[in-house]
Amino acid sequence: MQEPAPARLIEGGLxxxxxxxxxxxxxxxxxxxxxxxxxMMERQGVLIDRATLxxxxxxxxxxxxxxxxxxxxxxxxxxxGGACGISAA
Length: 89
Description:
The chain is an all-alpha fold. Helices cover 56% and strands 0% of the residues.
């Protein structure tokens, strides 16, 4: 019997968390535009459209945004002051 596959970052999608993280880091830390990343992947035999890369980035951004809001609400409920955890003196 085979164990079920782990949940994917993008529901029903093929990219793993590692691939999406690679695209994000290449875009923001290495300043590599999506069209260049798509060209590099194509040279390696992987055909991924720039629009698909953009969708992955948007989806990951939404997840980060939801997570940061959730953390902010937890801090406020915890009695440590505002959303950033700083109380006025």
